[in-house]
Specification:
Elements lengths: L6 H13 L2 H7 L2 E6 L14 H7 L7 E4 L10 E4 L2 E8 L2 E6 L13 H7 L2 H5 L8 H5 L2 E8 L2 E6 L6 H5 L9 H11 L12 E7 L3 E6 L12 E6 L3 H10 L4 E2 L7 H5 L4 E7 L2 E7 L9 H9 L3 H9 L29 H11 L5 E6 L7 H14 L3 E6 L13 E7 L9 H5 L4 H5 L8 H11 L4 H18 L2 E5 L2 E7 L2 E3 L14 E3 L4
Parallel strand pairs: 1-10, 1-11, 14-15, 14-16
Antiparallel strand pairs: 2-3, 4-5, 5-7, 6-7, 8-9, 9-10, 11-18, 12-18, 13-16, 13-17, 19-20
Helix pairs in contact: 11-13, 17-18
Amino acid sequence: MPFVLTMPRVIAAGLAALALTGTAAAQDRPDIVVGVADLPPTLEPAKELSNVGTRITYSVFDTLIRRDFLSAEGGSGSRLTPGLAESWTRVDDLTLEVKLREGVTFHNGEPLTAEDVAFTFSPERLVGEDTQLPRGRAYFAVLDHVEVVDPLTVRFVTKAPDPLLEQRLASWASWIVNKKDWQEKAEANGGLPRYPVGTGPFKFDEAKTDQYIRLTAFDDYYGGQPTAETVTFREVPEQAARIAGLVSGEFDIVTNVAPDQIAQIDGYDDVETRSVVLANSHVLVYNVDQPVLSDKRVRQALNLAIDRQLLVDALWDGKAVVPLSHQYPSYGDMYDATREGLVYDPEHARALLDEAGYNGEEIVYSTHPTYYLNAVPAAQVLVEMWKAVGLNVTLNVTEGLDDISNDDLQIRNWSNSTRYPDPLGALWIAWGPYGGAQGNWHAWDSIAGEFNEVGRKLETTVDLPERQKLGKQLLDIWEDEAPGTILYQPLETYGVRTSLKWQPYTFYYMDLRPDNLKDEAAR
């Protein structure tokens, strides 16, 4: 059974971490090795907003406000707690004042100050027109500026009332960097720093492209001394090799385990699986500027031809989840439980293709072979489902997916995470003007005008009934225009050495902080 880290064990782990000191601690702490399918090219935390990136950066950087995933069973908690900020207060409708913790140190020895926070969210780095981190604007387009009040106080001032500012500051793209280090490395590199420093429990040590990234313990971490000496993320694209390494003891944790391998791993005494359904959906993106995909009826037919539950049953042992469209129960009052959801209707798909005058033109679906678990098996099944309604779709499996020009891509796979519990934290971030579909691939920006207009209204609307109305409208437009579709929320399964007490989260984050990592074999 997957290990669930209960609150008493969290407290015990934290106390144990704080009790470790000096040479004895270094001798007792293990060197953790994690086998992963892929590695990010950089650890700039607002650049690598991906599953492979945040898996590592989450333990290198901290946010001002922290989402406490351990506040609910199975690593799914959403309670907001102090992080680098000891407190925060709404001064008025446009202003949030944040008080920083005293005594927090960056990995380069610099103290955390309000200047670092202001720089992290500055136009120079994150929200400017010419920033090299354009995804930052997807999170903070509503931010006007950050004021330094005193060395440990900042004020976030928005252009209009923002009901989600605290959630944004606890989420992706909000990890705090050191201003001096970032600017020096940016100047030396002639662009973005590859490995900026943070305040997290582990600091960057060494990397070799396509081989490994190694982190070492940062013993001055404000949250307590780390419980591992080093953590090395080793790239092993083949699942069989990752599992073999886990069983042999080469790896302490492995990622991206397919459901059909769970029983095999659980059959050993010293390793086990731990699984979570992710707050993330595997999706497809259609290039609406491709002639064969320019008619939305063809795109709608592609969506209607997909039997998602069959995909879940065949590839995920029934353990993945098909959501009610691009919305999730974690939204609370912004979730519509009555929505019809993602419909499977092959007859309607055939009728739409007839109406559109589709005449068997080839459509190419391109996917990377290993980036997403079950990507190729899912693609193979999808191609057969599309063929069954008369669509001529061929499969292109390539390790150079990102080398295909935007103009040439027709269908590609992707994933969308729920960065915070609101339509703005998932559908809007992913498919809005600064998200991947428009900002990176220009897959549907030519027809996204109404969608963008509604999303911008939603960003600055506080009234709940009006927000609910706008959220529904945003989803209606996306479903009707069909620039892509959701397949399912995948099951993420890790193989873990049994003596390692570590709880996976419903994000791709691998939290290696002292309250979530303890090695009983290191005693």
